[in-house]
Amino acid sequence: QSVLTQPPSVSGAPGQRVTISCTGSSSDIGAGYDVHWYQQLPGTAPKLLIYSDSSRPSGVPDRFSGFKSGASASLAITGLQAEDEADYYCQSYDSSLSGYVFGTGTKVTVL
Amino acid sequence: QVQLVESGGGSVKPGGSLRLSCAASGLTLSQYYMSWIRQAPGKGLEWVSYVSTSGGYIRYADSVKGRFTISRDNAHNSLYLQMNSLRADDTAVYYCARGRQFISGQKRAFDIWGRGTVVTVSS
User: Fold this and answer.
1) Which of A11, A22, A24, B56 pairs as cysteine with A109 (C-beta 3.0–4.6 A)?
2) Tens digits of residue pLDDT in B85-116
């Protein structure tokens, strides 16, 4: 099962900016498929955070932003807050699998 | 209140079967593709399967192909996952999720998730 590659962890002090990378291949992100991002707080179901590369659903603070270039994408969190401590996953579609793929996940720690 | 509620999880021996259900309230499932996504203990998310609005188009992850069957009953606003020949590595929390196409022609994001149901496969 193909997966998208993310760093296992990132950390930052309150108020800082952190970024999470998501690296794919020519059959998923590189093929032009949208990238979506999810936040999973401890013990809860994932929540859609960013859709279609860079759009935020209603209610998601503008501290969260997404970018895509080539076969990679990234999620940025500015003005880091304690409540942002969670696991974050990117997701796209893989044409060679005819199915969806998730990133390996990144744990964000607020120092 | 919009919500998806999974049920049917439990403990089963290797080789056994389980049928998961996902009931929707506050939303009409028939208008959307639906997926099952799982998360093994301490691990990341893994997409398992999706079904089109009518049920006529279905896809599975290679890890479950030939063993799992997804289905839906639009009249009862429900989604199902029949899991046969279960293995230890199928142990996970299983989520049902709504697939939403935000941009025409693009693939879907999962915008509504249930709380999940736990499946444990162990001898």
Assistant:
1) A11
2) 999 999 999 999 999 998 877 889 999 999 99
